[in-house]
Amino acid sequence: MSIPPAPASPDGRLVVGFDLDMTLIDTVPGFRPVLAALAAELGVDLPIDKLTERLGPPLDHNLRPYLPAEQIPYAVQRFRELYPVAVPAIPVLGGAHEALAAVAERGGRPLVVTGKFTRNAQLHLDHLQLPADHLEGEVWGVGKADILRREGASIYVGDHIHDVEGALAAGTTSVSVLTGGCSAAELLDAGTHVVLETLHEFPDWLTDHLRTPASTTA
Q1: 3-state helix, strand, coil in the chain (%, to 5)
Q2: What number of H helices and E strands is found in the chain?
Q3: Among the listed residues 89, 79, 96, the one whose alpha carbon sits nearest the alpha carbon of residue 34
Q4: 84 vs 116: CA distance, rounded Å
Q5: Which SS3 state, helix, strand or coil, does residue 187 take?
Q6: Global pTM?
Q7: Of 31, 88, 98, 143, which has the highest C-beta tally within 10 A?
Q8: What is the pLDDT of residues 166-205, one digit of tens each?
Q9: Distance in angstroms (rounded) separating the CA atoms of residues 139 and 44
Q10: Which domains, from first to last, does the chain contain?
């Protein structure tokens, strides 16, 4: 698949966006106990295994099959209130620091563009010392495109088919990692330009990409 020409950032610098959950961090170890605590408070039985198979879509979207519509706003608010205690249990994924550093070392701006509640996303960046030039939270799927265009991103890195949708809608190069539960076939079918096993591969890929920006990939 042909990689699109890079849109120009306002100052001409390299700008690379990254998703957060299951791209930079492994959210599952913290997400599970918070969901369990929420379920206990609400007195409902939530399918926690199913809800943590593929993290990425907003919580209200994931809860719709299991809660009455009128209860969902409160459930989301309460989840956000409970969530900070889980931050120390959530580890960085392998290669995340190196991927962000690879952008910065080339004079670029690494962004984090995520569906996660912004305040909680910032807690992760601070706790794990993940340096981002800009954080944009509470955006999902094609909604990420406006942010990527505004910031002049030429690459967006994610793990979910909806991350691919956001990248393509923005006209950026979509890079996908296999750390979030979506298969390579699913990501390629969604239109991603590049599939990497993990972020460990990203610095070398970026070097090659910047050397030959008109290259193609399967």
Answers
A1: 50, 15, 40
A2: 10, 6
A3: 79
A4: 12
A5: helix
A6: 0.89
A7: 31
A8: 999 999 999 999 999 899 999 999 999 999 999 999 999 9
A9: 28
A10: 15-26+92-211 (3.40.50.1000), 28-89 (1.10.150)
